């Protein structure tokens, strides 16, 4: 019933092996390759299921899916083992260096999205194009299966990735917001966010917080992402303010939380002794179209308004047949 585009037959796997050889050759070339050219895994970091039975072990329970639809989020989904966490941390160390030779491939790069040097929030988009580990995490089967189920058992396309990193002792907050308020250049609203920690995320170091049920409030105005924490609350009705009861979501490293595109969420500053590093994968259901004649992401060719979002920057990563 479900499978990935790259695992349809042995010929595809053979082509992938050749692509990986080409990729290794390109690493030695002065102009290294943009990894968005590869719409399938290029390393063995994540073992790929080959049968429906192998996919089943990643399947969410009906109770988990029901919890997501009722509350707007689902937490505690294991995505990474210790070795994968280590590899991704090493990758983060490399791509966060502004002198990285492929730095120009980022859609956005903010060493500190906050204007306050005492509240640092590293935030970037586009690192999947630069490092093979961040490229291949998009094809993590646990992530793919959960994404398809939470989108209503639909085929899934990649939207964009993000890094959110808060250093120890002076890490900044992420203001209360809804993801889709920044994504209205796409329709229909059939998106999903996955947040996964590379460190243990605690209330002390700025874990994610949700407002359960807020995904039913409709679309709100967007605040500055690293601005005043409570800017969004000035836009709420009296009833919404009564329902504004944050729930902290601490997670062990390697565990993820998924949330609805209208879920109100944010995270507080990190004054602890421990860093809080995380990556985010954003996806949408196949069939989503562009709602603008402007670039959807910096450095990505324009997809005219009304045209389906597809191509190498928005690859189909999971297909339902």
Fold blueprint:
Blueprint: E1 2-3, H1 10-27, H2 52-56, H3 62-71, E2 73-78, H4 82-95, E3 108-110, E4 122-125, H5 132-136, H6 141-150, E5 156-166, E6 174-177, E7 186-187, E8 191-197, E9 208-210, H7 238-242, E10 247-249, E11 255-259, E12 265-267, E13 276-285, E14 289-290, E15 316-320
Antiparallel strand pairs: 1-15, 2-11, 3-4, 4-5, 5-13, 5-15, 6-12, 7-14, 8-11, 8-13, 9-10, 9-12
Task: Describe the structure in your own words.
It holds the Pfam family PhyH. This protein has seven helices and 15 strands. It is α+β, with helices and mostly antiparallel strands and 321 residues long. It starts with a strand and ends with a strand.
Primary descriptors:
oxidoreductase, globular, alpha+beta, 2-oxoglutarate-dependent dioxygenase activity, 15 strands, Jelly Rolls, 321 residues, single chain, 22% strand, 4-stranded antiparallel beta sheet, 9-stranded antiparallel beta sheet, Ectoine hydroxylase-related dioxygenase, phytanoyl-CoA dioxygenase (PhyH) family
- The span between the termini is 5 Å
CATH architecture: Sandwich
- Overall structural domain count: 1
Q: Give the overall silhouette.
A: globular
Q: What are the secondary-structure elements, in order, as H or E?
A: EHHHEHEEHHEEEEEHEEEEEE
> How helical, in percent, are the residues?
10-25%
User: What Rg do the Cα atoms give?
Assistant: 19 Å
Extract low-pLDDT stretches: 1-15, 24-31
Q: Provide the structure class.
A: alpha+beta
What is the CATH topology descriptor?
Answer: Jelly Rolls
């Amino acid at each position: 019933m479900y499978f990935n585009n790259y695992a349809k037959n042995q010929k595809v796997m053979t082509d992938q092996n050749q692509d990986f050889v080409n990729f290794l050759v390109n690493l030695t070339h002065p102009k290294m390759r943009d990894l968005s050219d590869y719409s399938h895994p290029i390393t063995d970091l994540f073992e790929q299921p080959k049968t429906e039975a192998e996919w089943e072990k990643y399947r969410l329970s009906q109770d988990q899916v029901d919890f997501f639809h009722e509350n707007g989020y689902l937490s505690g989904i294991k995505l990474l083992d210790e070795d994968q966490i280590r590899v991704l941390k090493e990758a983060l160390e490399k791509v966060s260096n502004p002198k990285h030779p492929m730095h120009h491939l980022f859609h956005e790069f903010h060493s500190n999205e906050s204007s306050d040097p005492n509240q640092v929030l590293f935030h970037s988009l586009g690192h999947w194009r630069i490092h093979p580990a961040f490229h291949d995490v998009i094809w993590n089967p646990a992530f793919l299966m959960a994404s398809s189920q939470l989108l209503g058992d639909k085929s899934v396309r990649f939207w964009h990735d993000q890094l959110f990193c808060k250093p120890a002792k002076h890490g900044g907050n992420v203001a209360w917001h809804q993801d889709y308020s920044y994504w209205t250049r796409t329709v229909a609203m059939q998106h999903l966010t996955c947040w996964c920690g590379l460190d243990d995320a605690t209330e002390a170091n700025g874990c994610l917080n949700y407002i359960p049920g807020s995904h039913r409030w409709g679309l709100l105005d967007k605040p500055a992402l690293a601005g005043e924490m409570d800017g969004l609350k000035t836009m709420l009705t009296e009833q919404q303010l009564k329902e504004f009861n944050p729930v902290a979501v601490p997670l062990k490293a390697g565990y993820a939380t998924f949330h609805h595109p209208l879920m109100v969420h944010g995270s507080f500053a990190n004054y602890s002794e421990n860093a809080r590093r995380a990556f985010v994968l954003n996806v949408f259901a196949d069939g989503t179209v562009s709602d603008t004649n402007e670039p959807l992401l910096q450095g990505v060719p324009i997809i005219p308004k009304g045209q389906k979002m597809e191509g190498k920057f928005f690859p189909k990563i999971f297909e339902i047949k």
